[in-house]
């Protein structure tokens, strides 16, 4: 069987229309400057850089009816959906280089559509400081990068909610959220009602990253498409300052490496988002370089040659 991880397509989505700070639109180039193509090629991966998508500019306007820049957010997510779906349909492994995390609607809608058509099970790991489960009624800001998970669960503007061709795009058993430590007041109740498995930083502090990931990865099998949506603010700002929504107390470098290494061990990862990197707030591209270290781990680089686990996580 062809290893999809050996044929990667980079798709740049350079927009910050869903965010509250300007600058994440420069994230794709910062990751390229840090050397993502060369890094993956050194791991024996064939890389196709599809360049950057071209969408509407950020109008930088206040919220209207609970949403900021809704028209532009819809346009960018549709572009991301179409581009990632096209790469998946070719049998390739798409990496979306964001851009802010509102783009998770487009990328995960594409993956959801593809898995449904292929008869594959879907598991999404949402690595983030935030649950991103706001709605227009709950949000204190109107910034749609705080709403993509709610949209994927059927709560949001019709154009975003229906993008996957099925509503909702995700069910609770498909999603695991890891590293959470900042949740708006209204979100806390709403996300609890959805039955989503959320591994917040208290859980990680109490049980450790190893147990957290064993729980989050439980049940994967050869028919599972694992999508990783990696918001760089998942990391503690001491090691990743280049984000617009820093929250202290996130995973440290070694915890993050273990998280990524255990994902790689499953051999199920088949698509990836890297979002919310903001070079305007970074220090000498430090955050992009840390993100790239973690990408190496996601694709199987490790300190030693380790035997493959005899059984999968589900057994």
Give a written overview of the molecule.
The chain has 315 residues and is of the alpha/beta class. The chain contains 10 helices and 8 strands. It has an 8-stranded parallel β-sheet, with helices on both faces. Helix 7 (185-194) links the parallel strand 5 (175-180) and strand 6 (197-200). Helix 8 packs parallel to helix 9 (253-266) and helix 9 runs parallel beside helix 10. The radius of gyration is 18 Å and the shape is globular.
Q: What's the topology here?
A:
Elements: E1 7-13, H1 27-34, H2 36-42, E2 46-52, H3 70-89, E3 93-98, H4 104-118, E4 121-127, H5 148-152, H6 158-161, E5 175-180, H7 185-194, E6 197-200, H8 201-217, E7 224-231, H9 253-266, E8 269-275, H10 286-298
Parallel strand pairs: 1-2, 1-3, 3-8, 4-5, 4-7, 5-6, 7-8
Helix pairs in contact: 1-10, 3-4, 8-9, 9-10
């Amino acid at each position: 069987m062809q290893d999809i991880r050996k044929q990667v397509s980079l798709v740049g989505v350079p927009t910050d229309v869903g965010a509250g700070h300007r600058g994440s639109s420069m994230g794709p180039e910062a990751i390229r400057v840090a050397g993502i193509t060369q890094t993956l090629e050194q791991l024996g991966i064939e890389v196709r850089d599809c360049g950057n998508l071209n969408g509407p500019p950020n109008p930088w306007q206040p919220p209207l009816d609970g949403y900021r820049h809704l028209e532009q957010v819809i346009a960018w997510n549709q572009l991301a959906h179409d581009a990632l779906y096209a790469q998946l349909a070719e049998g390739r492994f798409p990496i979306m280089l964001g851009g802010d995390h509102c783009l998770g609607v487009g990328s995960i809608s594409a993956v959801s559509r593809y898995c449904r058509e292929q008869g594959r099970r879907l598991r999404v790991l949402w690595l983030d400081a935030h649950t991103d489960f706001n709605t227009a009624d709950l949000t204190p800001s109107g910034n749609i990068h705080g709403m993509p998970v709610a949209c994927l669960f059927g709560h949001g503007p019709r154009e975003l909610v229906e993008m996957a061709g099925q509503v909702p795009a995700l069910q609770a058993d498909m999603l695991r959220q890891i590293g959470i430590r900042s949740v708006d007041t209204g979100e806390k109740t709403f996300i609890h009602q959805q039955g989503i498995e959320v591994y917040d930083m208290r859980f990680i502090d109490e049980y450790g990253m190893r147990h957290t990931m064993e729980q989050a990865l439980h049940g994967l099998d050869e028919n599972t498409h694992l999508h990783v949506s990696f918001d760089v603010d998942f990391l503690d700002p001491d090691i990743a300052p280049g984000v617009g929504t820093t929250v202290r107390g996130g995973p440290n470098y070694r915890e993050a490496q273990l998280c990524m290494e255990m994902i790689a061990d499953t051999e199920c990862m088949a698509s990836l988002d890297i979002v919310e990197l903001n070079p305007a707030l970074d220090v000498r591209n430090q955050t992009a370089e840390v993100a790239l270290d973690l990408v190496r781990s996601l694709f199987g680089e490790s300190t030693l040659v380790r035997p493959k686990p005899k059984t999968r996580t589900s057994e």
